[in-house]
Amino acid sequence: MWNHEITLISKKVTGKDKLLQPISEDVEATLLCRKKRVTRSEFYQASQVGLRPSLILDIHSFEYNNEEEAEFNGKRYRILKTFPIGLEILELTLMEELP
């Protein structure tokens, strides 16, 4: 069921500061998603290379624009990988950001 909301977050460069470093702001897009479980095999395979996936969500593939971060239930996540499920669904594997 598509009964959860996820906010995909991308960075947009809006200018440069006095040191000519880029200034960016978050651009957010909220959409519906379907929550899935992280399987044991996926968790252990990822942990072998130092990653800890904590959440898997399905979204409609046309709504994804290569965002690198997401927010779900008030927590910020990094998008580790995407995997197409058919033509219309994209699976996002998320890792919780450390403060």
List its salient traits:
99 residues; 6 strands; 6-stranded antiparallel beta barrel
Helix content: under 10%
- By DSSP, the count of extended strands is 6
The portion of residues forming beta strands comes to over 45%
Which blocks of ≥5 consecutive residues have pLDDT under 50? none
Structural class: mainly beta
Q: What is the 3D form? A: elongated
**Discrete helix count:** 1
Output mean pLDDT. Answer: 86
- What is the alpha-carbon Rg in Å? 15 Å
Termini separation: 31 Å
Please summarize the sheet with the most strands: 6 strands, antiparallel, barrel
Strand order of the biggest β-sheet: 1-2-3-6-5-4
Q: Output the helix-strand order.
A: EEHEEEE
Structural account:
Helix content is 8%, strand content 58%. By secondary structure, it is mainly beta. It starts with a strand and ends with a strand.
Give a concise summary.
The protein is mainly beta and about 100 residues long.
Please outline the helices and strands:
Layout: E1 4-16, E2 22-36, H1 40-47, E3 55-60, E4 69-72, E5 75-85, E6 89-96
Antiparallel strand pairs: 1-2, 1-4, 2-3, 3-6, 4-5, 5-6
